[in-house]
Specification:
The protein is of the alpha/beta class. It contains 6 helices and 5 strands, in the order H-H-E-H-E-H-E-H-E-E-H. It holds the Pfam family LytR_C.
């Protein structure tokens, strides 16, 4: 018996030679490979299933939801849709031809009312009375002018149309018959708004051009 054999052991447990045998666990490369392949297959099946679910839910989207997206995109595409009706520069303002204006001179400058009335006529407004402002009203005009009309939504819209022709104006309301407006010219008045700028204000604000660096999202405004 070798000196390496523990006492009391022999037979098949007998160790021969003068070194202990190297004890190794059996290699399990095959099992590791199988587990790796199974994991890859599971991921592939999961990804394929996810794509199928996306296709199903996309195809089953209610028609109403798609209609809402198209309607929202149409609203965003129209610049006039974002303009509040009746606001200055809105496409909903009355045309100059639908506005009758009485031009009153509250200054000491002779002929100011007539010259202003002629210019308003050239721009399409209907001119009514051209005269000096009442003495009591003339003392109240501190700025470039005051626009006066009867209360009501239609007259308010007409006043805003006329306001596009005058910078620094003040709008007032009083009780009167008819829908004619008064334009009372004050001491700070020099001239009407440049015709090109006034026409642009009546036409409404231009739609902003999209930035070249930022892609436009058709589903948002």
């Amino acid at each position: 018996m070798s000196m390496l054999t523990p006492p009391g052991l022999g037979g098949k447990y007998r160790i021969r030679g003068d070194r202990y045998p190297r004890m190794r666990r059996p290699r399990r490369r095959g099992r590791v490979l199988a587990v790796s392949l199974s994991g890859a297959a599971a991921l592939a099946v999961l990804g394929w299933g996810t794509l199928q679910l996306v296709d199903i839910f996309s195809a089953d989207e209610p028609a109403g939801a798609a209609g809402q997206r198209h309607a929202k995109a149409a609203d965003c595409a129209s610049p006039a849709a974002a303009v509040r009706p009746g606001a200055r520069g809105s496409a909903h303002l009355p045309k100059p031809g639908d506005v009758t204006v009485n031009v009153l001179n509250a200054t000491s400058r002779t002929g100011l009312a007539r010259d202003t009335a002629d210019e308003l006529e050239k721009r399409g407004f209907t001119v009514g009375k051209v005269a000096n402002a009442p003495a009591g009203l003339a003392k109240e005009i501190k700025g470039s002018g005051v626009l006066i009309g009867a209360p009501g939504a239609e007259n308010t819209a007409r006043l805003k149309t006329l306001a596009t022709q005058l910078k620094g104006e003040e709008i007032r309301y009083d009780e009167r018959d008819g829908d004619a407006l008064d334009l009372v010219l004050g001491e700070k008045f020099t001239e009407l708004t440049e015709e090109k700028a006034a026409t642009a204000a009546l036409a409404g604000p231009a739609a902003p051009r999209p930035s070249a660096s930022t892609p436009h999202d058709p589903t948002t405004c």
